[in-house]
Amino acid sequence: MEIRDRSPVAGLPGKAQIDFRVLGPLEVTGRDGPVRVPPGRQEVVLAALLMEINRVVGSDHLVDLIWNEDPPDTARTQIQICVSRLRRNFADAGIQASIATRPPGYLMRATDDTIDLHIFNRLVAEARALAGTGAKAEAAERLRSAVALWRGPFLTGIPSDALRAKALRIDEDRLNAVETYLDLELDLGRHHQLVGEIGRLVHEHPLRERLRGQLMLALYRSGRQAEALDVYRTGRDLLIEELGLTPGDYLRNLEAAILAGTGALHDVAERETVELFATAGANAVRVEQPHQLPADTADFVGRDDLIDAAEEALTGAHARRAMGVVVIVGMPGVGKTTLATHVAHRLGREHFPTGQLYCDLGGTRAVPVEAVEVLGRFLRALGIPGPMIPDDLDERAEMYRNLLAQRRVLVVLDDAASEHQIMPLLPGSESCAVLVTSRVRLTGLPGAHQLELDILDTAQALQLLGRVIGEARVAKESQAAVALVRTVGGLPLALRIIAARLAARPHWSLASMVQRLANERHRLDELAHGEMTIRASLSLTHDGLARPVRQLLRLLSLAEGPTMPGWLAGAALDDRRPFPSDLLEPLVDVQMLEVVAVEPTGEFRYRFHEIIRVFAREQLEALDDEAVRSASQTRMIGGWLAIAEQAHRKIYGGDFTILHGSAPRWQPPPTYVEQVLADPLEWMDSEHVNLCTAVEQAAAAHLHELCWDLAATLVTLFEARGYLDQWEKSHRQALVATGRAGNTRGTAVLLGSLGTLHISRGQPDQARASLQRAVTLFRQLDDRHGLAMCQRDLGLLDRQRGADDDALDGYQSALRDFDRVGDIVGRASVLTQRAHIRMRRGDSAIAHAELEEALEIYRSAGYVGGQAQALRRMAQVLAQRGESAQAEQILAEVLAMVRRSGDVIGEGHLLRNLGEVNAEMGRFTQAREMFTRGLSVREQVLDHGGAALIRVDLARLMDRIGEPAAAAELLERAIVTFQDRNMDVEHGRAMRLLATVTGRR
């Protein structure tokens, strides 16, 4: 805990004297030399304060750092004692820094030059600025001075796991600085001098691909090509052994460039090398750039200081090589979401051009959204297909951080419940930023800037009032306007509601409104203190509405989705007018509902403010009996089922391969349904949150028939888009409802559907168990349609395990029952699947005939997905019969079909098939291109098993064209993947092929 001297730091501006050192063991230096800080609690408190210089650190946070989850009753007192002793030590040592008490904790005041961490950050920022002007030598020197400040890992020896977790992120800053000055010096042609230094760093950090690439580049430029390639191979083997991963694009492209002897490598830096030689992903899946922000508020006023603070924290943090995190906290109705959205739009695409992610985390709801579900949404928005998204939270978080590692993305997390909910959603890259709103102070969020959002001051409130009702009207009754602002307490939500009433009634004076509010002064006096005062303002608006509008407000609160279409108003009241959104306009006028979007049909979408929803629910419980509430909820959920049912019919050409129940439907206006179902799958996708919420509500309300029917209907969406999590969640909820009600048929349908889900997940044992339970129930009910669907899926399971005779028996039973109930698409699906066995047994003529029948059925029904499946299988039959040219033509047509539909997984399958056909035709160059493109697609969607299968295909081709070494390398990589994923059959085949290839070498 001591240092040897207090000499000025060499090479630093102003010859700074450092009082506090954290870049290594914690050290403090005073007027007369080292200052001893007792190990243990005082060290932890001082370290925490130093990491947040000039920012408040909460007492609760300090307690958690020291005692984790089991603090003693005297914890806060012990923290106070630690702070008191630190203050006395500073004073005795003549240290200018001070520790002030600032609720809810303590604030350490010190200048940046007194702590080595801040000097390091400043030097890095200066180096970045120098590099931007082309002064690379000066920038590199500045970075070396910054790195020289380090004496070991950050805060070595501090006994706090939480602090060590943050220390690891700061240690990463040091390595980034090292890699950056190495890049700069490589640009300056100093490769000979750097080989030894970089080699040592690679030895210390063998898994850092950037360092390994720099060593390869330095060796290559020094005329040591063989050693550069050996560095690559060593790194590749290590990554596979340690992490089960292959090198990234940069290293692979650099290796290819070195092998090719590319002259440009002699005079370009690492980042330019990536651009020049990044060809492997040219045909891969493009990572999406989502822009998910809600609409900004046109009449936003005030908050300039908070806006500036938020923007500085979110964008200025980049200069400090740390991810900016801002938490906006405040009471209900104060405008947290509005401010966050406004700031996000101001920063927008200028500062975060590669995307803005947004999610309402539902922290104020009974069950907040789980982080694993949010990550699923974000990964899909970033372009990862549903089946490729892992189930595990940690794996999803890792994939999310990898995708954002080199991007500039703003993540807006609205209405957070806790730090636990937020932590997995934080990107790991300093190029990103996170904006959070919450009703609670998230003081445990590392590095977060807390912004307290208070009520509007009088000037801002008058400005808002003027924008809503007109500035002339406010000026005419200026004293009454001030009194009105004072009466509603400057709370934005309450002020907007009252202003909306005045705007809708121009004959009312502001004074009369003040008088009306004064009559409820016993509630409104507490307007600035919480929800009860908001309820008072809402009561005024509610009571001023017409009776039917009041009831509509109450009944609509039963709809729990994030936004709602206008037809829900008609369902709530059982009003069948052609334009039900007209019913909502009175609520929009007084801002009890918010218009958030316009649908492609021209209809509006609406949203409740959560507080208004809570208020409406209270009124519903008080004023509407159970029968009214239940009937309204049944109609609204029945409306969702009615549209989803029609969407399935449009996709499949009828009620094929689906089972329905007797639940009542409520039909929204036919014109609306026809418009939104112009693209039925797109509608289901856009409404999937509302649809899944409706399943959850039906289960909670014991509407078991509605619940299972809607859940089963949504499989049309879940299967097409790979929403496997929602598939399972909705069915588990529905199973609880049907089980509780003794609904045997609903239970059977759900079990059969879960069997299909398990097949999609590659879980044959779970699939068979679920399907067999469903078969037992369907036989009890003599439900032939249900039996057909289960027998088809059981046949698929038998086929996958190689039991072709059992599979044919199951398929035949399914065909009989599909024919009996008239499900032609079900029949076609069996024929399509059975053709695989026909092919395997050499009965290509029978397979082709059955596929032609299936294709004709799909075409007559208009089911495009089925056509693609049948055509792909037909092409395989043709290829088996030696008609490769025709097979290739069909596969190319199907490839275009799946690309139009956005089916990335299907694209990977078809590229592999095209590679096989071209190889069979002896067109090896084209075959290699198809396999390579298919491999690229598989790697981009993180389908490692599928990528390994294509590597085996490509290995066969390479061996065939006389490149056994390349074939062996591909097989070795595939074998590792097969072994890791327990793909035993594929592993055995690859091992045998490898033995043949190596024997030939």
What key attributes describe this structure?
1001 residues, Arc Repressor Mutant, subunit A, Serine Threonine Protein Phosphatase 5, Tetratricopeptide repeat, 63% helix, flat, disordered N terminus
Q: What is the domain tally? A: 7
**Unreliable stretches, pLDDT < 50, 5 or more residues?**
1-16, 268-286, 519-533
Strand order of the largest sheet: 8-9-10-7-11
**Termini separation (Å)?**
62 Å
CATH level 1 class label of the largest domain: Alpha Beta
Q: What is the tally of helical segments?
A: 47
The CATH homologous superfamily of the largest domain corresponds to P-loop containing nucleotide triphosphate hydrolases
Structural class: alpha/beta
Helix content: 55-70%
* Strand coverage percent: 5-15%
Largest sheet: 5 strands, parallel
Q: Which CATH-level-2 architecture of the largest domain?
A: 3-Layer(aba) Sandwich
What's the number of extended β-strand segments? 14
In CATH, the topology of the largest domain is named: Rossmann fold
Mean pLDDT score: 83
Query: Radius of gyration from the CA trace?
Result: 33 Å
Structural shape: flat
Account of the protein in words:
The chain is α/β, with parallel strands linked by helices. A 5-stranded parallel β-sheet has the order 8-9-10-7-11, with helices on both faces. The chain has a 3-stranded antiparallel β-sheet with strand order 1-2-3, with no helix packed on it. β13 and β14 (604-607) form a beta hairpin. α4 runs antiparallel to α5, α28 (626-652) runs antiparallel to α30 and α37 (784-800) runs antiparallel to α38. The longest helix has 27 residues, at 161-187. It is flat and about 95 Å long. The chain starts with 19 loop residues before the first strand and ends with a helix.
